[in-house]
Amino acid sequence: QEKSSRLSATLFGEDCEISHDQLFELLKYAALGKCHNATQPSWCHVHHQSHLAGVVVIVLHEMSQLHFYKFYLHFRHLRKVFQHRFTLTPSSNFLASLYGEGANRNPQNTAQDLTSTGVSKSSDLQCDPIIRKYGLEKQGLTSYTLTLDEQKKNGYPIKGSPQCKGFICTGCDQQRTDSSPLFGLDCEMCLTAKGNEVTRVSLVDAQGQCLLNELVKPETTVVNYRTRFSGITRKMLLPVKTRLSDIQTRLKKLLPRDAVLVGHSLNCDLQALEMIHPSVIDTSLLFARNEGQRFKLKFLAKAILGKEIQCEKKLGHDATEDARAALELAQFFIEQGPAKVAELNLEMLLTTEKLAEVSGNKAALQSQRCRVQKQPNDSPHLAKPCFLDCLQVTGQTPLLLGRQELDSSGLRQSNLSTSNKQILQRALEDVPLSTFSIIQFSLGPEYIASHLLAGLCEKVRSKFTDMLTIYAGPFEDSFCLKSVEKEFGKCGPIQSLTVVTETYQPYVHIQYKVLEAAQLAVEILNGAEVAGSCIKVQRPVTAAMLDCDVLIKELELDVENEGVIYVAGLKKSLTAIDLYKEFSQLKDLETLFLPKDLQNGKHRNCCFLKFQNSQSAVEALDVINGCTVKGRKLRSRHALASGHLWRWISQMSDSNGKQGRHTLFEKLEQLSDSEQDLRKEVKKLDQHIEKLYRRLQDNTLCIVLFPGV
Prior knowledge:
Helices cover about 35% and strands about 20% of the residues.
């Protein structure tokens, strides 16, 4: 039986937000596979990648999460067919990195969705290992010197260590400051009867001036000169009289007491020199990536400094050249800061080089290497390689359809007169023949005006706020508000609770923090006796809320909520581990999500349970409803809001409009015609996606991207 490709993702709840790097991981592995050194994404799993027929990315330009939920009911195909949905972290450069430098950039407005206002591009870098270690801000050189523990872990000679008996200290015992001098050090070694022994030592100062460049006579017989790497030959060492002890003495004289040594894998050099130095910067560790991956000095020098070192034409390495390169790399890191280094995306460039070597596509490699530009401060900067480069070096020709397309030379062409219908017709013909396609549909400029977007934003915020709100009553004049709060709090976390006094008898206005809580209150407490009164529970009645029941039903049937249930009435002190124990008897329980309050970080009195299938979720509802955990009676129902949606709703419900209501309503009335037209465009786009989706081959990975406005 033929194996079928599929995608599985375990992200749930708060984890339903992914970065552009994570999406890039998925695209890279799906398109290139293991045979091109790509690895499985860290956040999902592509099953049987080798059976994938192709990858299709549909980009809906000028659209964001705001549009998806404003016109949720109109995206009939999109919300019912696509099995996974994630919020992308804000970024202004993701599409540029996908298409190539300079493509589709709009510096005036780069908001991803409602959550992106005021977020800088540095949010993309938070997961970078360099940023996790050093932070985003520039720091002095002392922040990048290895600690004693790091030196021990990486095999540096340590004073007092049994393995360093007989080693000489450099005598540089003065306190280091950010103005301490840097010195680049590199040694070449030969293999002798003793092991690795120094045969050449080079030392350069902070200006790159060579202070020492000496050949050294090994103490024991040379077994292998390693000429290919060291550049040392038997003939070169015959007249040499300098011994290791002479070099140790000279280094002690040359280095000031607060000197900081810089080198690439400097531990090997110090071990061979049999010297101990307390303050070092190791560029192999400074630029290290995920899981400790280290880059070669030759690669870093080319990628960052634009310098060719260790050339194949030369006989072996030049120790002075290597010492100077390591020094300049450290200076670049210190002067530019971790954020600039992280933006270089060295891993992707290295991958491009490897792919070019495998495919023999030197032109693509040279094109990528030419992306070294000078910034205003004259510091070298390597632009991020685009994803299309990675495909082209493997011999794949990506299909790019839209208002920006690729011509035969690989350059992007703009054709603003192309309509979505024309793009669809070409896609229906060409996509089935391509292994990787990017199809771009666009809204017209009339639909991205700031006043229209502001109006849509307010309407979505207002509607979700109304859906989170219920009115309960009537109550007696002397009713106990705490009793009401306690009873309604059993349905879920409450945002606010106020008494309505404009009516003949008092009512209570309650706004919840999650949709499921409000729905539970309507379903369970309508007609119930609360605080001594038989009450009615209802949502606000507005024009926007007339289709609320339809929307609730569709959210419940959403493919994202399949097998997920909501449980309320929990003690806030319970942890995820406690709940796993309590619910361990439930059949096919896959995972559990315990939401946190976005303001104080504390757990709420509810959770979400995800089961392997819908039937197990239904059976769990029968078990949970009415049962008690730690003395509290639980209430549950089918989930309505997937992880990224409830978080977004929480952020919207916490925000307050800054405009007066009168002014706002005037603006919203002006939007009615534009919104009607936009609704029609959304329906057409959903139909376009459906037609294209039906034309795709089996085992095709399809991604729809709302890149933001």
